[in-house]
């Protein structure tokens, strides 16, 4: 159909009841682009209608260099989405009429550059998927307003954001280059024997605990201590210097409020690429680094936490440990074992969010409470074996106990927000004050046991009604009649990731759940499909509000389902 067909339809249904809007569904030729109205909302208060704009990427003028390679394509699409969003803000009138009438919106990223399905490159086309609140007064169609949206506002937005000639060409190139540099840096970590790299001059502090943008004033740029000073060669930025954090056990110490958690938080987020200007765009971390914390109250389903916990009162099993209400220590142990189960290579731990009795047990306590009366083997006695046996490194913030001095390979002291390497000094102190605590960790780390989820765990249906899976805020998934609490998955950064996780759980249960397949194997198949086919393979229609999560957060969500059952 041509755009004149759309105009005629809107004129015809003007002033009629809202249901008549169903007639605008369809694909319309707007000359330079095609407008596709996929889904029409049932009333002005319902979720807004889903619309796409599709155009030839060549006709839009974008050089192939910007979108040819995968990592560049993801950054390219991310940038276009942000541009489209900005243009909406500038060029549309917004709310007019009832409910969502008149709103135009697109799902965009914040500080991270994630793969999303709001903007995709599909063959020779690019496609932008967004939502429009079809305008009404009461339930009466406001045809004139609708015409304004489709024939004035959206064409302007498209013109200003989807053509190479009308956007800032330097800025988009930089966006894409910076993303590629981060990917290259992350790829270099392993061969350089590193788990993370924090470039000099990085700006780590954030505005607030709920605002992830860089601190506006007074942020002190990071200077790498010379002992850990390294150089990397990047394809676009060239040579960059900074602090390399080697594999093994790294301790971050320092006085309270000196920037320890801020450094660890930046390292946590270094698994993702960041936008230029974020301040952390040259902070990169091994992509299999997982933040671990205590999470009392969570459910645990047959996790083997025996490396850390044995001999519970009343002979409770810790090889297949189940509880509906975990304690601080058992939850932290389960969080570690579940992360290892799906392939974590680095653990990131902050004393601020850890269970004390899980982290330390000093010599006096060892004397008072004999080992056979204490179920917990503290992390300090396992952290080195974790690296020796499984090759899993740990970066640990610990300002409160010197017991870790004996097991740390590297010690970084945060001093007025600056990292100093104090490894030598720490070794001297450890030699002078010999610890008389006994290593309770045994000879080996212990077993990581793969589990096989059962299909009975994943029934989102509500009687005869359609399956409903959605996100409520960025850390809660609504899965049928139950909700999954992800508030302790600290590396989940975007509500669109949360939505995708809900869908991925469903996809996994429909397609790859099999009695002979471990959770890890199932997760790998899901991740591979989504990487190869795109997020759209998760839903039978185009939605444009999903972003790519990591396997750790997907598995983390499954592990937190109150209905999970494993064999
Ligand atoms: P710690 O974990 O050592 O107690 P935090 O990392 O929580 O300290 O940091 C304490 C405060 O200092 C936070 O408000 C943080 O935003 C701020 N801060 C951290 N690093 C910097 C920096 N480089 N420049 C300015 N402020 C910083
Ligand atoms: Mg702290």
Largest β sheet strand count, sense and barrel closure: 6 strands, antiparallel
CATH architecture of the largest domain: 3-Layer(aba) Sandwich
The residue fraction in helices comes out at 25-40%
User: Within the CATH hierarchy, at the fold level, what is the topology of the largest domain?
Assistant: Rossmann fold
Question: Which secondary structure elements does this structure contain, and how are they paired or packed?
Answer:
Blueprint: H1 3-13, E1 26-29, E2 34-39, E3 49-56, H2 70-91, E4 104-105, E5 112-113, E6 119-122, E7 125-132, E8 136-137, E9 140-141, H3 143-161, H4 169-189, E10 194-199, E11 206-208, E12 211-214, E13 229-234, E14 238-246, E15 249-254, H5 260-269, E16 273-274, E17 283-285, E18 289-292, E19 300-303, E20 321-323, H6 328-341, E21 346-350, H7 356-359, H8 363-368, H9 383-390, E22 393-397, E23 410-415, E24 418-421, H10 423-432, E25 469-471, E26 476-479, E27 482-485, H11 495-512, H12 519-533, H13 551-559
Helix pairs in contact: 1-3, 2-3, 2-4, 11-12, 11-13
The structure holds adenosine-5'-diphosphate and magnesium ion (MG).
